[in-house]
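Q: I'm teaching a short session on how sequence maps to structure, and I want students to see two examples side by side rather than one. Could you give me a first protein with its sequence written out and its structure tokens following it? Keep the formatting plain so it prints cleanly on a handout.
A: Of course. Example one:
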Amino acid sequence: MSAYFVAHFVVKDPAKLATYSQAAAPIIASFDGELLFKGGADGVLTGKDALPGTAVFRFPSQDKLNAFYHSPEYQSLTSAREAGADMVLSAFEAA
């Protein structure tokens, strides 16, 4: 069953976020994750969006997603992630 890693974010430093993203991409791929979508909404239909950026990644299972997130390689990017953007990270398992 697929699992989804979702990041909602607001960019603080574009260069630092790009560095984080480039470093995270091969780690995500090594756990069989794939980027499905990254960007901002074309329009907000209801309410205010404090974190307008969204990235959605699919993993083959919740176990793979958790292994990616808790891996030493990904955890070593925490400082870079926090320097580049304010983020809320969530995990979802498909039904």
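Q: Perfect. Now a second example for contrast.
A: Example two:
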Amino acid sequence: MELTPRLQDIVNILKNKGSINVKDLALEIKVSPKTAKGYARELQRLGLVDMDQDGNIRLKEHKVEHPDSEKLLKTLENHENEITLLKKEIEVIKGELEKLKKKGKA
């Protein structure tokens, strides 16, 4: 089972911030609080996060109970690496495109 790109984004936010409130998460990912809470509940169901009564979400620190969670975390790490490589490739292509634009104007 793989995480959707949106759920991967939320896990990355939690990795960077440590924890976040559902309302703040909604603002950050530009969705309604209800939608953000749904995403948090899905991650909670998968055993990746804890959510308290006040809507604060954080990654679980201990070994997660869901049988696929280790596989999900490894998949997430692989996707993060792929995204990093793709971003680097995009920057190279942008540079080449700028060179071609300048060459065409000369």
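Q: What should students look for in example two?
A: Point them to this: The radius of gyration is 18 Å. Also worth mentioning: The domain at 5-105 is CATH 1.10.10.10 (Arc Repressor Mutant, subunit A).
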